Amino acid sequence: MKKIFCTTGLLLLFISYQISAQTTNELRQQILQIISTKKADVGVSILGIEDKDTLSIHGNRSYPMQSVFKFPIALAVLAETDKEKLSIHQKVTIRKTDLPSDTWSPIKVKYPNGTVLPLSEIINYTVSESDNAGCDILLRLLGGPNVVNTYLATHNFKNISIHATEAEMHKDWNVQFTNMATPNSAVSLLKAFYDKKLLSEISNDFLMKTMMATSTGKNRIKGQLPVTTVVAHKTGSSGVNAKGVTVAVNDIGIVTLPNGKHFIISIFVTDSYESEAFNEKIISDISKVTYDYFINKTK
Question: Average of pLDDT values for 164-193?
């Protein structure tokens, strides 16, 4: 009798595993179908936090981050506040010369002649609104991109590299390729952040709320999800070169499901000959089928 019970239990476990594997494979096929006809290189990495499901397509390939790099920069800045080398409340002087005219900067729009802001507000501008001037101010406070690299290396993140400021990327098209990450490494960084392994609880909660308030990329990860879905994310975008190639349309984030579970997703679109709207739809299509997959797992 015990032998029959044991055999039946193993059989049920095997069948359960097979169903799970088949379902994950179906999600993979859906994503491959989305990207197969597109004139773009797309990298995807997905992790179900509670369910432990993983999936990646070109997950170990390096992609230009563009403004996605503002997430690890914010992590590095907040790590310095945790060590009391910086303070979230400290006042930072922003000069007119810190606000170049040829870059995206809501700070510049609101304070064209410069201003004084608390560090917390500069982080908010940089992450939630992807402010390029704010980003370079944070890098200046840190001591440059190499400090961020050191921070990442200290936590054993080897496939994310940050070497250039926003100003440097604006001066030379090729410089953006020095700020690179793999989809898998982006998910790993988000998972460590979610698990509160990188920052104090106060700093972690502050950055999580800041990412939830992100106003850029509304048609990307969030694009086709229910409007009430909570997504903590960071986008990145490049311009289009003379050949009509878009180097980066990216979004990485943590999605909260209606049942309280979560999944992490990173999507990098590069070398794309598609329109901006089409590139964003690639991301929203992948996000939607991923959301549906995890929703259906709970039924």
Answer: 96
CA atoms of 105 and 102, how far apart (whole Å):
9
Q: For helices 2-36 and 276-297, give the axis angle rounded to 10 degrees.
A: 170
Q: How far apart are CA 42 and CA 35, in angstroms?
A: 7
What percent of the chain has pLDDT above 70? 92
Neighbours of 121 (CB within 10 A): 15
Tell me the catalytic residues.
Answer: 67, 166
**Residue 23 — pLDDT band, cuts 50, 70, 90?**
confident
Nearest C-alpha neighbor of 186 from the set 222, 237, 231, 152: 152
CA dist 253 and 216 (Å) reads: 12
Q: Are 184 and 44 in contact (CB under 8 A)?
A: no
Distance between CA atoms of residues 74 and 251, nearest Å? 16
pTM: predicted TM-score of the whole model, two decimal places: 0.91
Ramachandran region, residue 40 (left: φ > 0; alpha: ψ -120 to 50; beta: rest): beta
* Confidence check: pLDDT of 16 > 50: no
Buried b (16+ CB within 10 A) or exposed e, 24-51: beebbebbeebbeebebebbbbbbbbee
Integer angstrom CA distances of residue 283 from 34, 75, 176, 264, 265: 9, 24, 21, 14, 10
Q: How confident is the model at residue 299 (pLDDT cuts 50, 70, 90)?
A: low
Question: How many angstroms separate the CA atoms of 226 and 149, rounded?
Answer: 36
> Which helix (H) or strand (E) element contains residue 265?
strand 262-270
